[in-house]
């Protein structure tokens, strides 16, 4: 069967041809049972070598490039239309134009931030509390973060959350581990701090002092922070406290002033502390550090958030750090960075233009049908589980039936009328006003019902997501393109592409995190004790499968940290295949039949081939290390090869036998959903 697959790739089917897949990209010298990822993608990888701009480049990046080009054209057309001053179109064009104007930013240098840096420096001891509140309310979140979010136990209302934070490197390991990789990143970060502070006008000696104090403080914060694996345990992050308890536990912060002056709200009756250990450390640091140490930390937090909106000196210093972090060799083109800024500021305004021009109603209709097919298929899988009790199955079916589906774009667009953008102001000042607008938008939610019409991504984003607090699956317009979705492609390609993505997002509702939430999006344990134990035993096996993969010499994948995505990948594949089989059965098509070949491949083979095609990419070693540290998704090759080794229909489709590396004995396969 393997030989037949390798030699029939160029046969032509009389009625159906590949659209998303390109057989020229396949490497038929590699057997699908030896390395399926390479078998499908080696030609694509050879044809798409990494350029200096990229640390990683894959199918998602191709679509993202397409989306960026479209958005660039839309914005340039706005400029050509001479939009009315003060209109949203005018604001979009102004942000983009200022982001492109490096000549002005280079002439201004650090001038836009000097007054604020002087304010930090000149604050006397008795003003340190005022300085803390000013920093939190305007520029950064030193020591910890706070804000409203849906209450995990009652997702129709907002709760106030207080969370540890304040690490510029994000992950604790960068500060605490002394291996070669973490030491290199830490040294690059030290260099970044010292360089940026000199760019801001400080002497080398003062910049080095600031760097030392920042590292002292951030390392102490890291020492109390959750591990990556602990951060996936949602229930442990729900620690309600009365307002009186909050003040008693962390007295170094004036909490009444904090809420009244930074958020402009009355002190809440209660808060949720996500990480009490980190908050205790923040309280200790704030009460024990000297004014000089705290000011140095604030100075860096301020300059760090400002650096991307200032001169090329700041941009280039950030890039030098990125080279160490991800291995990228060339700064992204200015226009792409300008787009990032514009979409960050007015993303839905741009999205409205994008949808009008690039998203046909027919795509939404097709997707709605696919989603219902996948919903039915997942229902079958739940009903047939051999490890779950009937009572828990009933609750799972209830949750599945309650999924809200959002496709393409929001029904209600965000109103940017009150956002202030003035071309006479510096780019930094305008972007600060943008940040304050978005912050006020978030804080304004406090005391109001949760608006479930809101989207967490813009329509022009090439991605999809599941939101457990709303029990919703969301598919922005930009992902509905080949190789994920193509109206001219075969059902096999579309089910192996967007069908798997749909199944993936649905399965997130039942992964190690999503399973903690019920049909209404509330964190309620709806599992029997025996079912929860059976689930956890199965996940241990999946964790072990990924843990054993060596992504670089001496570096292994993290099966615990990537567990949710690995569960969703496997579930998406299994559920999409069931939906595909059901759809083809209605058409009288046998997906394994030689009578239904698509350019020489059976529909079942094409299904799995297009799934592998989604994850084709080239990647630098530095980026592999960075993603293995900080990304909850497995590397593309592992999303294909490790996941498929658990799926019996895949073995059948390609005739994979037990002597081949892709084969996994039935007793060792992990099947969860």
TrEMBL record:
Name recorded for this polypeptide: M13 family peptidase
Annotated family: Belongs to the peptidase M13 family.
Keyword line: Hydrolase, Metal-binding, Metalloprotease, Protease, Zinc
UniProt keyword Oxidoreductase, yes or no: no
One Pfam family recorded for the sequence: Peptidase_M13
Peptidase M13 N-terminal domain span: 32-410
PROSITE patterns: NEPRILYSIN
Gene Ontology cellular-component terms listed: plasma membrane
Domain Peptidase M13 C-terminal: 463-669
PANTHER family named among the record's database cross-references: FI17812P1-RELATED, ZINC METALLOPROTEASE FAMILY M13 NEPRILYSIN-RELATED
GO BP: protein processing
Cofactor(s) this protein requires: Zn(2+)
Entry's Gene Ontology molecular function annotations: metal ion binding; metalloendopeptidase activity
Top-level taxon in the UniProt lineage: Bacteria
């Amino acid at each position: 069967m393997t030989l037949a697959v390798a030699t029939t790739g160029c046969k032509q089917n009389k009625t159906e041809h590949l659209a998303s897949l390109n057989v020229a990209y396949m490497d038929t010298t590699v057997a699908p049972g030896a390395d399926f990822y390479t078998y499908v993608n080696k030609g694509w990888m050879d044809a798409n070598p990494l350029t200096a701009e990229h640390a990683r480049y894959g199918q998602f990046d191709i679509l993202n490039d397409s989306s960026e080009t479209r958005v660039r054209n839309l914005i340039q057309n706005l400029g050509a239309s001479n939009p009315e001053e003060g209109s949203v179109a005018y604001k979009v064009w102004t942000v983009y134009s200022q982001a492109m104007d490096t000549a002005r930013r280079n002439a201004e240098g650090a001038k836009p931030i000097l007054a604020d840096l002087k304010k930090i420096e000149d604050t006397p001891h008795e003003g340190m509390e005022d300085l803390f509140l000013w920093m939190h309310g305007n520029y950064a979140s030193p020591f910890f973060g706070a804000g409203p979010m849906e209450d995990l136990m009652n997702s129709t209302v907002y709760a106030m959350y207080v969370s540890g934070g304040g690490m510029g490197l994000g992950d604790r390991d960068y500060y605490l581990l002394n291996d070669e990789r973490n030491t290199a990143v830490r040294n690059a970060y030290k260099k970044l701090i010292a360089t940026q502070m000199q760019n801001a006008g400080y002497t080398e000696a003062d910049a080095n002092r600031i760097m030392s104090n920042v590292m002292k403080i951030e390392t102490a914060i890291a020492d109390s922070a959750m591990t990556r694996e602990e951060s996936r345990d949602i229930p442990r992050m729900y620690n309600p406290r009365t307002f009186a308890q909050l003040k008693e536990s962390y007295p170094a912060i004036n909490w009444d002033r904090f809420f009244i002056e930074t958020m402009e709200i009355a002190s809440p009756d209660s808060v949720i502390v996500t990480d009490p250990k980190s908050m205790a450390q923040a309280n200790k640091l704030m009460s024990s550090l000297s004014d000089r140490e705290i000011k140095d930390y604030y100075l860096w937090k301020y300059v760090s958030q400002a650096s991307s909106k200032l001169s090329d000196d700041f941009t280039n210093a950030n890039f030098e750090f990125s080279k160490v972090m991800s291995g990228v060799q060339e700064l992204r083109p200015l226009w792409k960075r300008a787009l990032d800024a514009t979409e960050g500021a007015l993303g839905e305004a741009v999205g409205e233009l994008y949808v009008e021009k690039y998203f046909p109603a027919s795509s939404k209709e097709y997707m709605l049908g696919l989603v219902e097919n996948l919903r039915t298929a997942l229902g079958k899988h739940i009903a047939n589980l051999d490890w779950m009790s009937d009572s828990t199955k009933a609750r799972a079916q209830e949750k599945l039936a309650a999924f809200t589906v959002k496709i393409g774009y929001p029904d209600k667009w965000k109103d940017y009328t009150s956002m202030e953008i003035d071309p006479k102001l510096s780019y930094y000042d305008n972007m600060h006003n943008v940040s304050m607008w978005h912050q006020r938008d978030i804080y304004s939610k406090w005391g109001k019902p949760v608006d479930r019409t809101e989207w967490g991504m813009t329509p022009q984003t090439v991605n999809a997501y599941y939101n457990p607090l709303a029990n919703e699956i969301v598919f922005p317009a930009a992902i509905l393109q080949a190789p994920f979705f193509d109206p001219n492609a075969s059902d096999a390609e579309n089910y192996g592409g967007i069908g798997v993505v749909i199944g993936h997002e649905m399965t997130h509702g039942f992964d190690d995190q999503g399973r903690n939430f019920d049909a209404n999006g509330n964190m309620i344990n709806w599992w029997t004790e025996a079912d929860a134990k059976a689930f956890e035993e199965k996940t241990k096996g999946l964790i072990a499968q990924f843990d054993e993969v060596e992504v670089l010499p001496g570096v292994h994948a993290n099966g615990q940290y990537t567990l949710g995505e690995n569960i969703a990948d496997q579930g998406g594949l299994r559920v999409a295949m069931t939906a595909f089989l059901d759809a083809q059965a209605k058409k009288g098509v046998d997906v394994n039949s030689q009578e239904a070949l698509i350019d020489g491949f059976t529909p079942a083979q094409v299904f799995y081939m297009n799934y592998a095609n989604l994850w084709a990419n080239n990647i630098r070693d530095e980026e592999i290390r960075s993603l293995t540290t900080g990304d909850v998704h497995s590397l593309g090759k592992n999303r294909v090869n490790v996941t498929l080794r658990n799926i019996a229909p895949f073995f059948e489709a390609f005739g994979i036998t037990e002597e081949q590396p892709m084969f996994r004995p039935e007793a060792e396969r992990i099947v969860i959903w």
